Model the fold of this input.
Amino acid sequence: MKKIFLAISKGRIMDEALILLKKNNIECDISPNKSRKLIFKTNYENLNIIVVRASDVPMYIESGKVDLGIVGKDTLLESNVDNYFFLRDLKIASCKLVVAGKKNKKLVSNMKIATKYPNLTQEFFLSKGIPCSVLKLYGSMELAAVLNLSDAIVDLVDTGKTLKENGLEKICLIDNITSHLIVNKSSYKIKKNEINKFITRISAQ
Ligand code: ATP
Ligand code: PRP
Done:
């Protein structure tokens, strides 16, 4: 039986992914939330779980060092990797990717947009035929719009609480986001049986 390596994004996605795996009786030998280890054995055949930052998952899959990944659609849209196949929408860690700003802001030409997602932001505005400039920030995006560092932001929204408490609102939806299961193209050829068996196991709920 060939070993399979599955990368899971730390944080929100990992919390929900571990619950999904547990529902299917797959568990790590040590809880990743209680350990500083980065690679975990599981009780499922030769499955090993790797814990990485969300934005690093595409690189591990692209390189083939890791076979499978659980990663947000937002991270996939932003990355420029393509050496993978989409396997399943796991429908976990769902949220929305939006353009947001102060009340009554509209999309207009040459807006400055603050975001963690410069590539997908440029693509979205290009697809609308609206030129924009992008300011890359790493967190608390809402602040940029509140302090007029930018005209608007592109960010994830879940409950809407962060926008509301900072006096901002959605201008438009870019995409609905969930976490996807992806596989390195070569891994899928070499380990097809093992990977298909794993997908069947986690799909059978
Ligand atoms: P990184 O470590 O790469 O900076 P991060 O710290 O932003 O990532 P998390 O916020 O724990 O990591 O998880 C981010 C992923 O979780 C997103 O890519 C998205 O797919 C998903 N997600 C679900 N709900 C939310 C939310 N409310 N805010 C942000 N991300 C969310
Ligand atoms: C995320 C996201 C929003 C907020 C949305 O931030 O960037 O700010 O959550 O969630 P809500 O709609 O439920 O309020 P995160 O907590 O990851 O912190 P960050 O700003 O440091 O990225």
